[in-house]
Amino acid sequence: GQNIDQPTEMTATEGAIVQINCTYQTSGFNGLFWYQQHAGEAPTFLSYNVLDGLEEKGRFSSFLSRSKGYSYLLLKELQMKDSASYLCAVKDSNYQLIWGAGTKLIIKP
Amino acid sequence: GAVVSQHPSWVICKSGTSVKIECRSLDFQATTMFWYRQFPKQSLMLMATSNEGSKATYEQGVEKDKFLINHASLTLSTLTVTSAHPEDSSFYICSARVDREVGNQPQHFGDGTRLSIL
Predict the structure, then answer these.
(1) d(CA A39, CA A36)
(2) Cβ–Cβ below 8 Å for B104 and A50
(3) Given an 8 Å threshold on Cβ–Cβ distance, is A40 in contact with B104?
(4) What is the pLDDT of residues A51-62, one digit of tens each?
(5) What does the alpha-carbon distance between residue A82 and residue A80 come to, in Å, rounded to a whole number?
(6) A40 to B106: CB separation less than 8 angstroms, yes or no
């Protein structure tokens, strides 16, 4: 079966750095996405990785290791507005998105 | 960037009512649209995939006669919840993509519809 694992909840302090991990087992791989979802709102696209390595976009970076079936989302200089759920999703061999359950990130002052 | 409009954003209605939700791609043609449901504090659950001009493909456990999907054009898909009951109360979100997403094209999400059945 297809499976994506990420921690259910994480807590971090404003101004700090946090790393949210995602491991996956899917039938084929055509890229990995990270989305941010605030409570009661639809997900918004953050990043996309298809090759191994780090993609940096401002305060957010995403890393991929295809051989390990592993990715992480790194958030720097955390702000209160970063409190949200972060969803990891993998595009399988049929180009279907397989979603993780999401990681709820709580930012404390 | 690509914009997906979903309407209405909030619906409250009586049990037994049918509710139609519209999903439009505003500045691109979406060959495929997806309908998701999300219960509180849970992740997105794909209900069905609809391709323009053909029947929707429903995920296991989703009743196709209850959740009617129509994708009549490249910019519009509709989800009709027929004879809705309180257990159908949820957050329904549509998303759209242009094609099989060659490259880094993500799915583009609508703002969601919060459905409350009394």
Answers:
(1) 10
(2) yes
(3) no
(4) 999 999 999 999
(5) 5
(6) no
